[in-house]
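$ run holo --ligand "calcium ion" --emit C-alpha cells
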Amino acid sequence: MKKIVALFLAVMTVLCIGTFTAFAKSDSIGATDSNGRVVISSVTTAGFLNFGEINAPENVLDMDQSTVTGSSYNAGVQQSVTLHFAEPALICEVFVQCKDEGGTTNEDNSRGTYTIYAYNGGVETKLGVMKARTGTDGGETLKLDTPVEADSVMIVITSWEGTNWACVADAYVVAESNGKPPVAEEKRVTVDHAESSGFLNFGTVNDPANILDMDQNTCTGSTFNAEVEQSVTLVFKEKTAIEKVFVQCKDEGTTTNADGTRGTYRLYAILDGKQTEIGELKAVTGTDGGDTLSLANPVEADAIKIVITSWQGNLWANVADAYAVPASGEMPPQGGENTGFLILLAVVAFSGAALTVLKYLKYEKKY
Ligand SMILES: [Ca+2]
Ligand SMILES: [Ca+2]
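-- output --
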C-alpha cells in the first residue's frame, strides 16, 4: 500500500511541476526578450539529412557556435532554416553565424552565403544576402534600412565551399524598439458610407459624411430629442471583425458635464441586420477629445451604430468623427485564457486525491 502511495505522490509531483513549468513558459512568451531579440517559438529546417540531436534545428537558438543544424551542401534542393516567431514583430536586424571549424575556405573568411527572407502571413520579402561567417568572433548582422513586419524569418543556404557541412550555428532576429508592429491604432475599417437617423436635416452642415473626415469641426446631429432614436451608422465596405471603436463629438470650447463630456453614446454592432449592443462611450469633447471602446473579444459586423442616449446643454447632440479598428489577429493563444484555471483545477484534484489517500492510510494504521 505504501509503495502505491509513494508512486502516486511521485507521479503527482512530476505532473504538477510539469504543468507549472509549461504554464510559466507560455506566460513568459512576449514579442522580445530582454535583449530586444524576437522570441522564437520553433525552428524548422528543409533540405538537410536528419542526424537527430547532432543537427537538431533548435541548435541554432543556443548561441553555442559548436552546435549547428545542417548537412552536406546540396545545390539541387533548398536547404534552409526558418525561425518562427512567438508573435509577429517589426524587425530591424538578423544575425546569423556558422560553425567555427578552425579553417576557412573562402579568402574572405566565410564558407558560403545565406539569403534571408522575412514572411508576414505568407507574404515573402527578401531581406538580403549575408556571408556564412565563421571564426570565434564569427557571424554577421544584416541591418535593414526599413523595419519589416514579420512572423518568421528563413535563412537559405545559397552557396557553400569545401566539404564541411552547409550549416547554421546560431541565429537571432532583433525587433525594432518594443517589437510590436504598429498595427491596431493605425488601421481603420473601410467605410462605404455613413447614415444618420433622428436628426433634422441641415444639408452639408450636418451631413452624415462629416463623421468620416476626422475633422472635429464637422459633425452630424441636431438638438437632442429623447423621443426618437438619434443615431449615426458607419456602414462597412465589407463584413469585418473589429476590436475597437473610436467616437468623438464636436469641440465647442465648453463642456457641460463635470467630467468634460456632453453625453453618452451606446454602441451596437450590426451583422446581417441583427444589432448587438457592444458597450457605451462618453461623448468626449475638447481638442484631444474622443474615446475608444475596446472589445474583450473581436466582433464581426457589417456596420456600427452609435446611438445618442443622453445629452446635456443646448448644443447639438452630435457625432463629429468615428471609426472602427479591425481585429489585429493577435488573438490570445487557444485556451490561453483558461490555462491558469485548468492548472488550479488539476492541483485541487491532485491534492484532494492525495489527502484522501493519506486519510485512508491513517485510518488503516489506527484500526
Ligand atoms: Ca548553436
Ligand atoms: Ca468630422
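-- notes --
The radius of gyration is 30 Å.
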